[in-house]
Amino acid sequence: MRGSSNHLAEIEKGSDMVTITAISQAAEVSRAIAPAEAKSPEAKAPPAAPDKPGTGVPSRVPRRLLIPLAAVGAAATLVLATSAHWNTWVGAAAVQTTDNATVHAEMSRLSARVSGNVRRVLVRDFQRVKAGDLLMEIEPADYDAAVAQAKASVAAAQATLDNLENQKAHQRAVISQAEAQRRSAIARELETRQELERQDQLLRGGVAGTKQRLEQATAAHDTAGAALAATEATIEAQRSQLEILNGDENLLRAKLRAGEADLTTALLRQGYTRIVAPFDGVVGERMVQEGNYVNVGTNLIAVVPLPNVYVVANYKETQLTHVTPGQPVDVTVDTFPGVVLRGSVERISPASGSTFALLPPDNATGNFTKVVQRIPVRIEFDPGQPLVERLRPGMSVVTHIKIAGEAS
Q1: How many CB atoms are located within 10 Å of the residue 11 CB?
Q2: Which region among 86-95, 123-132, 173-182, 230-239 has the lowest average model confidence (pLDDT)?
Q3: Alpha-carbon torsion 321, 330, 11, 5, what sign?
Q4: Residue 224 near residue 249 (C-beta atoms within 8 A)
Q5: What's the whole-number mean pLDDT along residues 137-164?
Q6: If we measure between CA atoms, which residue out of 399, 306, 352 comes closest to residue 106?
Q7: Which residues contact 365 (CB under 8 A, 6 or more apart)?
């Protein structure tokens, strides 16, 4: 900051030298003319020299015009020097002040998320509320019915799914029984095969074997084999049926999830009929009254988060040369003359105010007039100042950013 002050002093010194030089020149001209006028104070001024032929321009400037011309030249020199360094002087000032500043708050405008008639309005204008307080209610009958219908759909889907689970359990029992029968059939087939082999050996050896017994053993083995094949076919059929039931279960579970989603949506819409305060604050003006019909998006009520307020000061771009976040700020409020509130620069807008306009300026059209832009600066109040609780959004304030040191 000391470097900025030295730079400012050098600029001011240079400007003063230009001004002193111009004034000295005017004084010298005045001293040169004064003796001639003193010798003959009552003498008439000599007639002006005739104009040069064909030009219409006097051959020399009358002496009485020299002093005014010198003064005009000195003034013009001073104006040029001042305008050339004006932005530098402004940006290097130790205190940057603007009255283009107002109090702001993160106000919330609550709007309808469902349509219907306003059933109740439970707050008055400018009433203080707490977070979660019920402010107003939209007629919920239609949305209550939608919730009941969604619950019934979910219950029906769940019942169908439970019934399917019972069918699957029964099918698994059938498969288990068939598998037990298959094990018995396998044992029977093994027994008959062994008997067939024994009778065949006896008949071949001619020992106590008869052809009739061999035929009986063969028939018994064939019957056992057929029973085993039938049991295995039954098991495959029952397993296929179980797979079908599994597919039905997946479909029913998808329907159940869809029904639960519909129920969630219905519950949300039912909840949207209750307009509650999003935070502690003060109610602004109500936009609707009891009995009014509102559509989705209709503004209902505004809540201001008092006393959480801040200041937005619109500084000229030439004033922000040395402004940075964290610098102390003195704030005076028009409502409370003589009172100084303390704060600090929180952050500076990323663009000028005109950049965020609905129709931002376009300088590429050829019609350009340079205008000093204003950049919004957000200023937060320091804690422990009771008067801040009395501030309201929209109040006019004057801000003084302390560039060179602490707030006074």
Answers
A1: 16
A2: 86-95
A3: negative
A4: no
A5: 94
A6: 306
A7: none
Q: 317, 307, 382, 402: which is closest to 103 by C-alpha? A: 307
What would the two tokens of residue 290 be? Answer: 């009891």
Which residues neighbour 76 within 8 Å (Cβ) at sequence distance 6 or greater?
none
Q: How far apart are CA 266 and CA 149, in angstroms?
A: 9
Structure tokens at 207: 């020992």
Residue type, 120: R
According to the model, what pLDDT value does residue 70 have?
Answer: 74
pLDDT digits (tens, 9 = 90+) for 187-223: 888 888 887 788 777 777 766 557 777 778 888 888 8
For the chain, what is the mean pLDDT?
81
The whole-angstrom separation of Cα 30 and Cα 35 is: 9
pLDDT tens-place string over residues 54-103: 444 455 556 667 777 777 777 777 777 665 555 555 555 779 999 999 99
Query: 28-63, pLDDT tens digit by residue?
Result: 544 544 444 444 444 444 444 444 444 444 555 566
pLDDT at residue 82 in the model: 63
Residue 84 DSSP class: H
The 10 Å CB-count burial string (b at 16+, else e) for 342-364 is bbbbeeebeebeeeeeeeeeeee
Q: How far apart are CA 174 and CA 234, in angstroms?
A: 9
Backbone angles phi, psi at 292, to 5 degrees: -65, 145
pLDDT for 88 equals 58
* Amino acid letter, 73: G
Length of the chain: 408
Structural domains present in the chain? 1-92 (no CATH), 94-105+307-408 (2.40.30.170), 108-138+273-304 (2.40.50.100), 142-270 (1.10.287.620)
DSSP code at position 281: E
Tokens representing 309 are 């307020």
Considering only CA atoms, give the Rg of the chain: 50
d(CA 298, CA 261): 26
What pLDDT was estimated at residue 294? 96
The tokens for 123 are: 């707050």
Compare 177 and 145 and report the one with higher pLDDT.
Answer: 145
Alpha carbon 355 to chain centroid, angstroms: 18
- Looking at 266-325, which runs of residues are DSSP E strands? 274-276, 281-283, 293-294, 299-304, 309-316
